[in-house]
Write a structure and sequence with these properties.
The protein has about 550 residues and is α/β, with parallel strands linked by helices. About 40% of the residues lie in helices and about 10% in strands.
Length: about 550
């Protein structure tokens, strides 16, 4: 407990010194100077713990102002990092600043042109038109629901990605969901189940089901169809997402120790208190592609025909093709697939997994998009993209490369006040976002932060509309790879369709021997009845 109280030490010290300085006036008039100094600090601390705009000041009164002092010189720090090739830090700071500006409704224009080095390899841009369009309706949506779906959903082009209650605090979940309700977009629950704070916010939900089947599990951790039927019948639940893997730690299970399970977490997950909560690395309900696709069909039936899909970070490309072959053989198709890039991740993950396991979003998205085109299924299945997507350019880039919509976890975490303290796994989040500590999460004011969530979404969609208009298009869905250009070297550039071309519809099903991109080689080795290579003797890799 000493560590928790230390964050109030500066405020408490200022208050004590204020009292001592006042008493010192009876000894000498010179004590008026320290009285004025410490009195101001004490008044500042009282204001900090009662205001609702800055969570960092509520949790760290007086001391928290040091952060804002450092923010004042951040542009100079950022420019130094850019000049010294420290790419990752200015990227994250710049993106965070963009979110803060849009969430707070602050002007996001800047003088003196681009801060990107436009002649460096890797610089990307969108083409614009000499005849820009006018777009009045910025509420861009995509209808999710294939031919077997009875309750299709008109999903916003930009939504909150999966973050579980338990990983995030109650106030953070409530602020996110209330903001989603205000802004008319969807909130993915994460695999931790639907909590009372999801329901209280009233926002549209994408109910994510992981390998632990939280919210619809039996006492021994298996899938309970009747519990799922009850959960999915809630009108607030608009879509169901089966999670195979996530970009931050694909193929890695998880465990929430019994000591960290609160009654509210147990209620949301449908698990008992006093027992470790285990998420297996693999789903116990299926072991083959066909069984997985049949399970998706079963979920759709149990939900009353709501859109059902799955999320994964692409690993063995052949395995994804196995799933697609199972769709063809069973005639069952998911309504959507979310491709999660390995560059994403909002909480803690093992270092090697975070750095080196899983496929980045661009490669995973283009592969999945082209595989579905090759199998003649792309028009039946919508594709979502998630993985470090914060700006309107990032959203439109993913749409150009094959996505129908984008999800963001990091952007909306910034909107509710995350400062990337990287203390998500310690329960000591300084702004009350990723903690279950009641006192720390009290600092996150739901009313203020939910407005910021809705404002960030609205301003981002406004920026998407502006870029779309400048490109001479009427809807973001009209972006194609040729609208994206990439600098390869100081004097060379290529268009997106040269690097990420759309493959022909049905090419995997024809007899052509053309296999320039290696799709057909993997397709021949994929089988609907097993995730193992079709030719088990050679086993020459995915």
């Amino acid at each position: 407990m000493l560590r928790e109280h230390q964050r109030y030490a500066t405020f408490a010290g200022a208050a004590v010194l204020t009292v001592l300085s006042f008493l010192g006036l009876f000894i000498s008039g010179w004590f008026v100077l320290p009285l004025a100094l410490f009195g101001v600090l004490t008044a500042m601390g009282i204001y900090d713990v009662t205001q609702t705009r800055h969570a960092i000041l509520r949790n760290y009164p007086v001391l928290g102002h040091m952060r804002f002092l450092f923010e004042g010189i951040r542009p100079e720090i950022r420019q130094y990092l850019i000049e010294n090739d420290a790419d990752e830090e200015p990227f994250s700071r710049e993106q965070r600043s963009l979110v803060y500006q849009r969430a707070k409704g602050v002007e996001d224009k800047r003088p003196f042109g681009s801060r990107r080095r436009v002649y460096d390899a890797g610089y990307e841009w969108l083409t614009h038109s000499a005849m820009p369009t006018r777009i009045d309706d910025k509420d861009f949506r995509v209808r999710v629901g294939g031919p077997d779906c009875k309750q299709p959903y008109d999903l916003s082009l930009f939504n909150i990605s999966a973050m579980s209650f338990g990983a995030l605090s109650a106030n953070a979940i409530l602020a996110l969901n209330t903001g989603a309700a205000r802004g008319g977009f969807a909130h993915d629950t994460g695999e931790g189940g639907i909590s009372r704070y999801h329901r209280q916010g009233g926002g549209d939900l994408i109910y994510e089901i992981g390998s632990g089947y939280y919210g619809c599990c039996t006492d021994d951790g298996r899938f309970d169809p009747e519990k799922f039927r009850t959960q999915s019948a809630d009108p607030q639940v608009k879509m169901i997402e089966l999670k195979l893997s996530q970009g931050a730690k694909p193929g890695h299970g998880g465990m929430l120790p019994a000591a960290k399970i609160t009654p509210e977490i147990a209620e949301a997950r449908g698990i008992p208190m006093g027992r470790d909560c285990i998420s297996p690395a693999a789903h116990p309900e299926f072991s083959t592609p066909t069984e997985m696709i049949e399970f998706i069909g079963r979920l759709r039936d149990l939900s009353g025909g709501k859109p059902v899909g799955f999320k994964l970070c692409i690993g063995h490309r052949r395995e994804f093709m196995c799933i697609v072959k199972a769709m063809l053989e069973t005639g069952i198709t998911p309504d959507f697939i979310v491709i999660d890039g390995k560059e994403g991740g909002t909480g803690a993950a093992p270092v090697e997994f975070a750095d080196h396991m899983g496929m980045p979003l661009v490669e995973g998205l283009t592969f999945a998009h082209n595989t579905l085109r090759g199998a003649g299924l792309r028009d039946r299945i919508r594709i979502g993209a998630s993985g470090k997507l914060v700006s309107s350019f990032a959203i439109l880039k993913m749409i150009a490369l094959g996505a129908d919509w984008a999800n963001s976890a990091r952007g909306f975490m910034f909107a509710v006040g995350c400062i990337q303290a990287q203390a998500c796994h310690t329960n000591h989040c300084p702004v009350g976002v990723a903690t279950q500590d009641p006192l720390r999460q009290r600092a996150l004011d739901v009313g203020d932060k939910s407005e910021r969530v809705a404002r960030f979404h609205a301003n981002t969609m406004h920026a998407v509309a502006e870029l779309t208009s400048a490109a001479g298009l009427m809807h973001p869905g009209e972006f194609l790879p040729h609208h994206l250009l990439l600098r390869e070297g100081e004097r060379t550039m290529v268009t997106g369709n040269e690097i990420y071309p759309y493959m022909p519809e049905g090419f995997l099903l024809d007899d052509s021997e053309d296999d320039r991109f290696g799709y057909k080689m993997r397709w021949r080795r994929a089988a609907a009845d097993s995730f193992q290579p079709f030719d088990t003797e050679t086993r020459r890799g995915p």
